[in-house]
Amino acid sequence: MSDPSAHRPFPPPTRTHPVSLPDGSGHPGTVFLSAVIDHPRMVIGDYSYASAFDPPEDWAARLAPYLFDFSPERLHIGKFCQIADGVQFITASANHRHDGISTFPFAIFGGDGFADRPSMPGPGADTHVGHDVWIGQGARILPGVRIGTGAIIAAGAVVTADVAAYTIVGGNPARPLRRRFPEPQSAALLDIAWWDWPVEKILTHEAVIYGGDVTALAAL
To answer: Is the peptide bond before 18 cis (omega within 30 degrees of 0)?
Structure first.
């Protein structure tokens, strides 16, 4: 097993730009999200990062443009998630009513308030992303979706329904492509919860985590 002391010190989750360039500066297009987002409706775990070829000033607005300070729903992102360029979470505040004759949101164009107006939908569900989820370039995550830990979302996917843990999905609408592990191993990985280990322990056992041997990881 590799010795973490032999590598460059792992950046803390409070570092804005955790990827170091050869000159020692931080790569401007990659950020630890918990370090750059202070949004009352977003909950983000340590070490989850996002990348962009044109880094925004407001990462919260780039990732979840319809999640406002006053939105009733929340966006939850776990630890060690990897979010590629162009990913967007379309949260519930983007919704229109679509159970009647019209979908037009009359209430937002005037009046003394719109919370109880018939043209406004009720509060929508939170969106949840588990731990160690990889979301590929340009994917769209629709309101109220729950993405399980260890899932992979293919580039360009439009995720309209929940994704089981350790499942790869792709397409529009996204469909399961394959399971990364059999169900018993997926359940074991959720019990092991390596993402909750101290980062020093994770680095020490990096080879086992990437080796794919769930039994060996459980033995740690």
So the answer is: no
